[in-house]
Each structure stands twice: as C-alpha cells, then as structure tokens.
C-alpha cells in the first residue's frame, strides 16, 4: 500500500478486496499501487505519492 494525495473531482470505486474508496480533492489516502484504477489516476496526475520522511537519526548522548 502506498499513501497518495488526490487532486481532482470527487471519485469513487470498489477495490478488488471489497473496500469502497471515495476520493475528495486534497485528501490523503492509502491505496494499492498495483491496482489498475490507481495506476490510471497516477498516470492522469490525480494521485501523487506522498514522500516519506526519513527516519530521524539517533545521536549518542554524553554521560556526565
């Protein structure tokens, strides 16, 4: 599953797993990247993957 941000007119579909999805402009949604409907929306520019933030680096703490 990939997190996308949707931009476009309201749209709805039922995914093969039975989940019903309603997309609203500027909504963030998690969808399967291997789904044909999702791929079509990505190709048309209606879905854009949300960049994942890198994990914060841990720093060693000095003892007193």
Which key terms come to mind for this protein?
about 60 residues; Ribosomal Protein L9, domain 1; two-stranded antiparallel ribbon; elongated
Report on the architecture of this protein:
With 64 residues, this protein is of the alpha+beta class. The chain has 1 helix and 5 strands, in the order ββββαβ. The strands form 2 sheets. Strands 4-1-5 form a 3-stranded antiparallel sheet. β2 (11-14) and β3 form a beta hairpin. The chain is elongated and about 55 Å long. 9% of the residues are buried. The mean pLDDT is 89.
Q: What structural class is derived from the secondary structure elements? A: alpha+beta
Can you count the helices? 1
Rounded Rg: 17 Å
Morphology call? elongated
Q: Low-confidence stretches at least 5 residues in length (pLDDT < 50)? A: none
Can you write the helix and strand succession as a string?
EEEEHE
Count the beta strands. 5
Largest sheet, in brief, is: 3 strands, antiparallel
Q: In order across it, which strands form the biggest sheet? A: 4-1-5
CATH topology: Ribosomal Protein L9, domain 1
User: What is the CATH-assigned architecture?
Assistant: 3-Layer(aba) Sandwich
How far apart, in Å, are the first and last alpha carbons? Answer: 45 Å
């Amino acid at each position: 599953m990939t997190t996308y941000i949707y931009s476009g007119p309201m749209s709805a579909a039922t995914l093969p797993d039975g989940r019903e999805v309603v997309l609203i402009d500027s909504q963030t949604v998690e969808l399967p990247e291997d789904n044909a409907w999702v791929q079509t929306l990505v190709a048309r520019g209606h879905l854009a993957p949300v960049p994942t933030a890198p994990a914060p680096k841990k720093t060693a703490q000095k003892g007193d």
